[in-house]
Amino acid sequence: MSSTKIDEPHVGAHPADEQPAGFKPVVRTRDLSISFGPHLAADDRRVLSGVSIDLPRGGILGVVGASGSGKSSLGRVLSGRAMLREKEVDWPWISGGNAEVAGIDLRKPTRDDQRRLTLDVGYLAPESGDRLRNDLTVAENIAEPVLSRDRDFDRRALGRAAALLIDAVDLELGTLNRFPFELSRGQRQRVAFAQALIIEPRVLIVDEPTQGVDIFAQPAIMSLLERLNRVRQMSVIVISNELATVERLTQDMLVCHRGFVIAQGNIEEVLCDATDPYLVRMREARDYARTPLPGTLTKDTDAAVDRVVRGLFPDPEADAEEARLEAEKAERAKLIESRPEFDRFNKEK
Ligand SMILES: Nc1ncnc2c1ncn2[C@@H]1O[C@H](COP(=O)(O)OP(=O)(O)OP(=O)(O)O)[C@@H](O)[C@H]1O
Question: Which segments show compositional bias classed as Basic and acidic residues (predicted)?
Fold first, then answer.
């Protein structure tokens, strides 16, 4: 464990014993351990230990580490999906410490908590694209998280939201009527990303968000994450074995190595003071990590991302008010264009 950074509190994702009174993290863990196998202390297989996180609303935490270090297991647990499927042997479980996400204690969830979890916490796993239902169209798959809770949800609003999302993840609108098995792996993963966002989650846990996604579509995914975080205050935990992916979104990271958290804090500070060989290697790989995204966001996709960020299920009254203000602004601009003295008069006032 790096002696350099682990004890220093840091705004963002650090243990917040020193945070101001009233600080309420959206994700809070204390000395969390995660295991696979039977729920018997002697027999379980611990894959990650000592995770203490405080992620505030609107914060982003990057979880990095080599393959097999326990990152995905952490994501599965924090997403709450592990808890919902704890009878399944290939899902990890909490074998020590505490974890609270969106106000839900993951160790003792009530039935209502379980329902709320899948409404407040979005989750995208590297294999999510392959888990889409092949008997449903893409549009139906995207809508599924909403309809599985509320069969009576307004289908038109849902169809519109699915179209906004498919546009924002840079897929053709015609994709909505196709089936997952007709798509490429990268396309399916983008559909799964859209599906994770349909609930407009308060917290999103994304494991390798750009894995398998072609370089031209990657900026769309990253823009959605960045803007939903900045504009909608969506808290994000981004898991990746590439520091570059994390660094595009945040300066706060937690490093897992061989089942332990070996460092935590500001990327720059952690790497600058690193003595641990793994962190030193990470620092050396930094230049590569800083290369810009290879693709660029097209104007159309940029506008599509913008529409998603404005909200998937708009409030007609707020929309009308916004349209009225826009019209007023346009009218004023037209007036100023024809009579520049009005502008001068406004400024003098
Ligand atoms: N179903 C399972 N049963 C038992 N052990 C598992 C299971 N899934 C994963 N593990 C073990 O848990 C450890 C952590 O795996 P995890 O997938 O969390 O690592 P990771 O850091 O996300 O790796 P990668 O970047 O390759 O996805 C590994 O040693 C792995 O072998």
Answer: 1-17
pTM of the model: 0.81
* Token pair belonging to 283: 């620092």
- DSSP assigned state of 7: T
Q: Return the residue whose CA atom lies nearest to atom 31 of ligand 1.
A: 68
Tens-place pLDDT, residues 247-263:
999 999 999 999 999 99
Check pocket membership of 257 for ligand 1, CB cut-off 6 A. Answer: no
H-state helical runs in 148-198: 155-168, 185-197
Q: Is 39 in the pocket of ligand 1 (CB under 6 A)?
A: no
Residue type, 326: E
90 pairs with which residues across the strands?
none
Give DSSP secondary structure letters for 69-90. Answer: SSHHHHHHHHTSHHHHTTTSTT
Q: Report yes or no: 214 and 186 within 8 Å, Cβ to Cβ.
A: yes
Q: Per residue in 111-160, pLDDT tens?
A: 888 888 888 999 999 999 999 999 999 999 999 999 988 899 999 999 99
Q: Is the CB of 212 under 6 A from ligand 1?
A: no
Question: Looking at this predicted complex, what is its ipTM?
Answer: 0.96
Q: For 227-233, which contacts have Cβ atoms below 8 Å and span 24 or more sequence positions?
A: 227/305, 227/306, 227/309, 228/197, 228/204, 228/308, 228/309, 229/58, 229/60, 231/309, 232/200, 232/309, 233/57, 233/58
Within 8 A by CB and 6+ apart from 284, the residues are none
Q: Is the beta carbon of 241 within 6 A of some atom in ligand 1?
A: yes
CA–centroid distance for 263 within its chain: 21
